[in-house]
Write a structure and sequence with these properties.
The chain has about 220 residues and is an alpha+beta fold.
Length: about 220
């Protein structure tokens, strides 16, 4: 019953093939059970990143590093949903997550990338980082996104308020946007793939190509 109080959505996109994974873990992160307020957003953001990495660690996939560009894109979108009263990845004017990522310089010309976004809003005790993460993990599409093994970066956007009109006296609400990504310069990727092609053994070539594309848990060329 509780999970139905958290409304979710997810979108994925890339200029390379996307992979998916799954995991389960219990996060032991500071402020995971803290209700967000206007005064503790940095702590809530850190808690969400911590919980993501606890889950990813349990699955054996690469941990996520905070990226200021993705955080800017995510924060802008969370605030925009609350301000304009809509719940979706595209703004009323048609700006999608990947355009937002281009606007902040995370993706663009000469960059090979893979990216995704999850959004959620919840009220009352359902709005804590742990409860929102539990809801994401129970939804197949969100789970595959937040545990995708090729992502390396994360940006967390948080806005106090709901993206929909609510009855007077309703419990305080919080709106979340999480942006994920992996990126590499195209020229760097080409050079990496050339080195992979020079490997004598087929298994070594496959592993090197996986690392070039960010599909191996560790050792990939990252920006």
């Amino acid at each position: 019953m509780g999970r139905k109080r958290v409304l979710l959505a997810v979108v994925m996109g890339s200029s390379v093939a996307a992979l998916a994974g799954a995991a389960q873990a219990s996060a032991a992160c500071a402020d995971a059970d803290t209700l967000p307020t206007a005064d503790n957003i940095p702590q809530i953001r850190a808690a969400l990143i911590c919980i993501h990495n606890e889950e990813r660690k349990a699955e054996g996939v690469a941990l996520l590093r905070p990226d200021s560009r993705l955080a800017q894109a995510a924060d802008t979108h969370a605030g925009d949903m609350v301000e304009k009263g809509y719940f979706g990845h595209d703004t009323p004017s048609g700006v999608d997550p990947f355009k937002r990522m281009r606007q902040v310089g995370y993706i663009g010309r000469g960059i090979v990338w893979n990216a995704g976004e999850t959004i959620a809003w919840a009220s009352g005790t359902f709005a804590t980082p742990r409860n929102v993460m539990d809801a994401w993990l129970e939804s197949t599409s969100q789970r595959l996104t937040l545990l995708a093994p090729d992502f390396r970066h994360i940006g967390v956007g948080i806005a106090i308020g709901a993206p929909v009109e609510r009855a007077p006296g309703a419990a305080p609400a919080v709106t979340y946007t999480i942006d994920y990504g992996w990126r590499i310069q195209a020229k760097t990727l080409r050079a990496c793939l050339r080195r992979a092609a020079e490997k004598n053994r087929a298994a070594a070539r496959r592993l090197m190509r996986a690392k070039c594309h960010g599909l191996a848990a560790r050792g990939a060329i990252e920006l």
